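Structure (tokenized):
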């Protein structure tokens, strides 16, 4: 070897260089984006929570014969449409979307009894709404007792999920958040949007920064591990842009800042930790290499083609690392059929944040 080639880059694989790993390949032949740290077996309970995009992960696991762990089951004979409307089988239990790491940590603290569950409720037209799951009952609960009983059941189900899961998947979604100023707890949505009344002196906006987000994610994972020593974590970042921003920035700029911070946090909590892995769904969907073709025309909603490409990449990486035939949709008897080609993936995704569009200019 010549003197010029004796440097640390000389023996790197082709995946380390843009020319050989990306530019010289067909975009759909790009591979090796994920080297999974651990194998997921079909029998292992996998719990999924997080932002809207996390809903696709659980469904893909179940469709391919894996054990998507549902700790809060829907009432018998409820139709698939009603199940989605009432937030069943979107995540492992009826938490609704958990957009931030601080919301995740809040749910974990409630489930473990470290913090008292707030007694706040919202009332409108004789119906009661849960401020921490504002859309799980589209028309609200019939009574305050019913709302509290439902919330308690979900918290108990969440505890079951974090104590029994072998793999816990969390998708980071947002940095922007809303808190109760005097009591310190967080809402999944700004009061006055999905339900409730906005009080300017009581409800405060917080655009979370890197240290805050990282500390809450690390704390949530540590608490989960304290009651489930064998659990392993997979973190992802949602590729879905913001519906709206309260940051006083252009929504495109706010989106890039938010996702960049979340991606950095995901790296910090997963790098060097054998029981915590990062899966690059964000990069697969959002990379300019793919020319935005995984998005619908609104350049926000991820198409069924994009979702399938991400999940196929997930299972292909597992197979490449640990062997065995790649799991196919419908691998388990009774698994739900895949979505027909061309049907938009966002049609059956419940995303509270989309409600913000109603408050924008026409």
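Design, position by position:
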């Amino acid at each position: 070897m010549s003197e010029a080639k004796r440097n640390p880059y000389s023996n790197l694989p082709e995946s380390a260089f843009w020319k050989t790993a990306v530019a010289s390949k067909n975009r759909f032949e790009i591979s090796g984006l994920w080297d999974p740290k651990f194998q997921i077996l079909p029998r292992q309970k996998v719990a999924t929570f997080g932002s809207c995009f996390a809903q696709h992960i659980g469904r893909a696991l179940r469709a391919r014969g894996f054990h998507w762990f549902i700790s809060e089951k829907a009432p018998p004979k409820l139709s698939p449409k009603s199940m989605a409307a009432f937030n069943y089988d979107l995540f492992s239990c009826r938490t609704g979307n958990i957009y931030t790491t601080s919301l995740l940590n809040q749910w974990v603290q409630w489930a473990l009894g470290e913090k008292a569950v707030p007694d706040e409720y919202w009332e409108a037209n004789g119906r009661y709404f849960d401020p921490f799951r504002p859309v799980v009952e589209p028309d609200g609960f019939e009574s305050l007792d019913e709302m509290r009983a439902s919330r308690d059941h979900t918290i108990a189900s969440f505890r079951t999920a974090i104590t029994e899961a072998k793999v816990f998947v969390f998708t980071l979604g947002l940095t922007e958040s809303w808190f109760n100023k005097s009591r310190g707890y967080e809402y999944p949505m700004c009061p006055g949007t999905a339900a409730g009344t906005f009080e300017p002196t009581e409800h405060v906006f917080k655009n979370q920064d890197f240290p805050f987000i990282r500390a809450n994610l690390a704390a949530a994972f540590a608490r989960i591990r304290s009651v489930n020593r064998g659990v392993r974590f997979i973190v992802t970042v949602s590729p879905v842009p913001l519906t709206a921003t309260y940051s006083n920035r252009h929504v495109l700029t706010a989106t890039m800042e938010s996702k960049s911070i979340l991606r950095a946090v995901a790296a910090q909590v997963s790098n060097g930790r054998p029981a915590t892995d990062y899966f690059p769904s964000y990069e697969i969907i959002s990379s300019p290499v793919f020319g935005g073709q995984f998005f619908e025309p609104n350049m926000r909603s991820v198409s069924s083609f994009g979702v399938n490409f991400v999940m196929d990449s997930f299972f292909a990486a597992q197979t490449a690392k640990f062997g065995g035939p790649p799991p196919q949709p419908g691998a388990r008897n009774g698994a739900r059929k895949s979505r027909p080609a061309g049907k938009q993936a966002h049609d059956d995704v419940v995303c509270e944040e989309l409600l913000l569009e109603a408050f924008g200019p026409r």
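Reviewer-requested clarification: The longest strand covers residues 45-50. Confidence is low (pLDDT under 50) at residues 331-347.
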